[in-house]
Specification:
The protein is α/β, with parallel strands linked by helices. 34% of the residues lie in helices and 26% in strands. The protein has a 9-stranded mixed beta sheet. Strands 3-2-1-4-5-6 form a 6-stranded parallel beta sheet, sandwiched between helices. It starts with a strand and ends with a strand. It binds alpha-L-sorbopyranose.
C-alpha cells in the first residue's frame, strides 16, 4: 500500500475537459513517484444520471453526485475541480472555497473579470490552494521557452505574436448551446474565441513576456443566427467567431494576436513567436515537442533557425517520461499540471496560474472585447 496522503477529488462536469483532468489524476503518481499526495477520484458530479454513471465506471470514480452543492458539502472531498461551462465557474468556485475546499478551475476563470474577481477573493480569504488549467504552460517546449526568456538570452524583446486557429464552426447548420455546443452560446461561454482560445494565448504571453497594458481589437461574428439546442429556436449569435488584436506590453514590446474558428484546414493551430534583439523563439502546438530558436550571435556561416527536439531528460518534465527522442503529447500537459499542483501542496507554494494570475487574463479579454465593441484602444 502506498504511504502517500490521499487527495480526494470531486470533479464537476464530465465533458472533454473532465476526461483530460481525470486522466491527469490517474496517471500522475506512476510518472511522478516522489510526490507526497495521491489523487483519489472520489466523486463525479453532473446532472445526467446515465452519463455520469457511465463516466464514473469508465474512469473509476468511487461515487456520483447530481448537484454540486451536495458535493461541496461532503467531508470526504478535499478539492473541487470545475469542468463545467464558464457561466457556472464562479458560483461553484466560491461555494467550494467557502467550504474550505481547494479549487482547480478549467480556463477561463469565468466569463468576465467582474465575475472572476470574487472568485479570487473567495480562495484568498479561505486560504485554499487554487489553480486554473491553462495547460499549454506545461508543454515541455513552452516551459523551456519560459526558461530561455527568463535567462535573458533573447535580449530586449520587441515582438510577441500568437495565433490560435480552428475551423469547426464554419457550417451555418451547427446549432448553438447545449452540452456539446455551449461554447457557441454567449450566455454560457461569455464570449467566443476571445475567452476560449485567445485566453490561452494571453495566459502564455503574460507568463512569458509580462503584463499587457492596452489593446486595440476587431472581432467578427460571421454567422449571425443559429438554432439554439435548448430552445429549438433560431436565435442571434452573441459570440465572437474571430478576433484580432494588437497591444503594448509593459516591457515596451508590441503584441499581435489572432484567433478564429473559421480558418479552414486548421484544427488547433496554436503558435507563438517572440523576437528579441539577440535571439528569437517560436513554437507550434501541431509539433509540440519542438522549439525553434534563432541566435544572431551564432557564427554567420552557420547561423539559422535551429529546430530543437525537446525530448532529452534535461528538458522540463522529460526525465519523467520515456527516453531521449520519444515524444509526449497533449494529455501529458494535464498530468504535469496535476504534478505541479501536488508539488505545490508539498512545498506550500502557489501553483501557477493561480486564480489571481488568471484574473489578469480575464481582464485582457474584457479589454479586447470592449475595444472591438467601441472601435477604440482600451487600457487593461
Ligand atoms: C475549443 O475547441 C477548445 O477545446 C478549447 O476549449 C480548449 O481550451 C483548447 O485547448 C482546444 O480547443
Amino acid at each position: 500500500m502506498s504511504e502517500k496522503k490521499p487527495l480526494n477529488i470531486g470533479l464537476v462536469g464530465y465533458g472533454f475537459m473532465g476526461r483530460t483532468h481525470s486522466n491527469g489524476y490517474k496517471r500522475v503518481n506512476d510518472f511522478f513517484p516522489d510526490l507526497a499526495h495521491r489523487p483519489v477520484l472520489k466523486a463525479i458530479c453532473a446532472r445526467n444520471e446515465e452519463r455520469r454513471t457511465a463516466f464514473a465506471e469508465q474512469w473509476g470514480f468511487e461515487s456520483t453526485e447530481s448537484d454540486w452543492r451536495e458535493l461541496v458539502k461532503r467531508d470526504d472531498i478535499d478539492a473541487i475541480d470545475i469542468c463545467t461551462p464558464n457561466d457556472s465557474h464562479a458560483e461553484i468556485a466560491i461555494a467550494a472555497a467557502e467550504a474550505g475546499k481547494m479549487v482547480l478551475c478549467e480556463k477561463p476563470l469565468a466569463r468576465t473579470a467582474e465575475e472572476s474577481a470574487p472568485m479570487v477573493e473567495a480562495v484568498e480569504k479561505a486560504g485554499v490552494a487554487n489553480t486554473v488549467w491553462y495547460n499549454y504552460r506545461r508543454v515541455p517546449a513552452v516551459t523551456l521557452a519560459k526558461q530561455i526568456v527568463d535567462s535573458g538570452k533573447l535580449g530586449q524583446i520587441f515582438h510577441y505574436r500568437a495565433n490560435f486557429l480552428q475551423d469547426w464552426t464554419i457550417s451555418a447548420d451547427l446549432p448553438q448551446g447545449g452540452e456539446g455546443l455551449w461554447r457557441l452560446d454567449v450566455d454560457a461561454a461569455g464570449s467566443g474565441v476571445t475567452g476560449d482560445l485567445l485566453a490561452h494565448c494571453i495566459d502564455t504571453a503574460i507568463w512569458l513576456n509580462g503584463s499587457i497594458s492596452d489593446v486595440s481589437a476587431v472581432t467578427e461574428t460571421f454567422i449571425k443566427e443559429r438554432q439554439h439546442t435548448l430552445t429549438g429556436k433560431v436565435e442571434k449569435v452573441g459570440i465572437d467567431d474571430a478576433c484580432i488584436f494588437h497591444c503594448h506590453f509593459a516591457n515596451g514590446s508590441l503584441g499581435l494576436f489572432e484567433s478564429t474558428r473559421y480558418a479552414r484546414g486548421h484544427k488547433a493551430l496554436y503558435t507563438f513567436e517572440i523576437n528579441g534583439a539577440d535571439a528569437s523563439i517560436r513554437w507550434d502546438l501541431h509539433d509540440l515537442n519542438r522549439l525553434e530558436y534563432f541566435d544572431h550571435r551564432d557564427d554567420s556561416t552557420t547561423r539559422g533557425w535551429r529546430n530543437v527536439h525537446i525530448t532529452d531528460g534535461d528538458m522540463p518534465y522529460m526525465d519523467k517520461w520515456w527516453v531521449p527522442g520519444l515524444c509526449i503529447g497533449y494529455e501529458h500537459t494535464f498530468v504535469h499540471q496535476v504534478a505541479d499542483f501536488l508539488a505545490s501542496l508539498d512545498n506550500g507554494t502557489p501553483c501557477n496560474p493561480t486564480f489571481r494570475d488568471a484574473l489578469e487574463t480575464t481582464k485582457v479579454c474584457d479589454a479586447v472585447l470592449a475595444s472591438a465593441k467601441d472601435r477604440a484602444w482600451k487600457d487593461v
